[in-house]
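Help wanted!
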Amino acid sequence: MSNDNRFELRMTGSGGQGLILGSIILAEAAIMEGKIVTQSQVYGAEARGGTTKAELVISNKHIAYPKVTDPDLLAAMTSEGLKQYGGGISRKTRVVVDSSVMSAPDFLNEENCRGLLALPIRSTLISRLESELGLNIVLLGIIEGLTAIVHVEMLRKAVAMHIKKQFLDFNMKALDLGMEMVEAQAKTGIRI
Amino acid sequence: MSEKMVLMQGNEAVAEGAIAAGVRFYAGYPITPSSEIAEIMAKRMPQVGGTFMQMEDEIASIMAIVGASMAGKKVLTATSGPGFSLMQEGLGYACMVEAPIVILDSMRYGPSTGMATKVSQMDLMQTRWGTHGDHWVIVLSPSSVEESYQLTIRAVNLAEKYRNPVIVLSDETISHLREPIGISIPPTIVDRRLPTKKAGYLPYKTDESLVPTVANVGTGFRTSFTGLVHGESGFQTANGHVAEALVERLRDKLFNNLDDIIQFETDRVEDADILFMSFGITARGVSESVESLRSHGRKAGSLRFITLFPFDDDRVRKAAGNARTIVVPELNSGQLVLLVKRVFGDSRKVVPMNKINGDLISPQEILNFVREENL
Amino acid sequence: MRPDFLRCERLPNIWCPGCGNGIVLRALLEAIDQLQLDPDKVVLVSGIGCSSRAPAYTAFDNVHTLHGRAIPVATGIKMANPDLTVIVVTGDGDGSAIGGNHLIHAARRDVDITVVVFNNYNYGMTGGQASPLTPSSSITTTTPNGNLDRPFDLVKLAAGAGATYVARSGIYFTKHLVDHLKKAIAHDGFSLVDAVAQCPTYFGRFNKKGSAGQMVTSQKDWMVLKSVAEKKTPEELVGKTIIGEFVKIERHSPASAAAPKEQA
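Answered by r_m:
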């Protein structure tokens, strides 16, 4: 169904991690590059504290059907998120999980997804930047590192649109951290 | 002509469209999935010299906008099914006193409280027949964030032009969807016609347009408004001939202007042998399916209702081409399909396609349906 | 009273012989006249019921709305054009039953409108059914064995909801009624006048209250001026209805409402 230039992203985790904001930031970076986007999310009580989901479609041309049907990338920041919204992936889907809060899911293998990248996202964030906040921005860095879906500078600009000045520096570091983690992973060649 | 594109949520586009159209009074009551419109209006109305009111319920909300409309303001309220049910008496009243008002109904899953955060298209017939008695409303159906903006402007303009309630029938998905839209071009604005002479003023006397020139209250014309049947003077009467003339005029003021009111969007209808008829968010899955079917050599086409009501059988027939099969996908148990069947009778194969689990109909599901049903 | 405040071509009115509504309407028009309001800037808004027909007999802008919905419409008008004097004409059923929620919220908001309740203790237009103001044990068509419920005290209800002007009067005391209507209309904030009238056709007949004339004159027996009541014991006031001004306070003005930020 999806066209070659259509990129579908699904992020899932728990409310408060800022995944919806993350998807909006990436959407705005894509718009600045003249791309078309549709961004959506689950709503309601479950979005505050419970399991949450944010989706983004990026394309060079008009997007008719606005929802993710066959994700190119699925990022799960909690095991509950993966359980609830991890269905509907295919052999084109790359899956990123936070290995610091969940063990690598055994139902994912080369038969049903393109690849699984387990990164200790939360623990690295805490050890390197001494913060529990900013997980969404680290994840954006990881997505960018994996896909180069937008120009990094556009992504930085979009982050700046949404983050208060006094926290901007920290968030730029978080973005860099995410990209670094992908790079380091690529170097070691470890793939779970 | 490249306009600056901004990322906007559907509900935000409705609020900004209303402001661009001149809405300066908003009254509402919180309800998912339309609450963001109230929240945005609470912030934006004071910025543009307008008034925001959070009312005690949806009945008060619609009555407050009717009052503000009578005092000359362009007005909006927004709600979802449960609140829209409460608004029905006010909707009928606005039809009867011919107060220009705009109601945004963002459809969630019904009946009753249903599923507040899930999408449906179950309020379609409620927009047309929700309030008692013969009455006519204009119902517009956006299928994107951009169109939420444009159709809200159009709704305000049509309400003012025809002195009639206009309903923008959106849904949970569009309300919460974010898409880039360009909004820097100032829209065309329509204002209600007002009386010029106090001598011989009859609020409900009309010219050939059949749209009355009722004065705004407080402008010295001393108008009588009532939801009772009334003649040109605005005063109540139990005269059956006056009643008949009034109800006929309420219909004809819209039906004499269908070219102005009715809009469809068609895609490759001319040579289609299978035609999809849909509205709102469902049309976006359809659009992708048509593309897909065409790429596989199947002559598929689409007709999307931008104006749902008034619903004109002749115009639908003419716009539908010659497709032998018409599929009507919708997120309810079969509402639009009733109208489509009325238009075509047995002359075409009209096939309902319904989904009522709170999710959208995906393009793949449409393709599967066409294959499985041998359409 | 100025005859040009009435649309004489709309008369006679629909009210029964002996109905008290005409006297309340006259008092209201008298109050508007004495306040020297610009008739072009007065809007009367009503709901559904006998009393709610009153505005259409007047020469002002008048809005006959739906049952119970006069107050939100009046709120919309006033908020859209604060220069107008907006007066709601309602009945005890229209205003305190189906419209009761709107009543308390308008009082809470302290929106600057005046609500005049033409209180005849029952639903007249539909045939004399019980309203929330029907006294306990009274006979109506829906309480054939006597009303089991207690009535609202409209004055306390409005006061409790935050009304900044509340008064009660009766049609026997016409000058008292006009004076309190004037004060209510002139008040800056939400004001309510419980104007007690009679329904000889239903409430009076079912409860053996005598003729219309007797119902009016009896008000002097069962109504007590507030100033007089203050000197009486609770025992002496059993079965009496106190009339006068009950609430008159400065309108609520929020201290912390910031000016809206300019548009970005």
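OP: Thanks! One thing I noticed: The longest strand of chain B covers residues 102-109.
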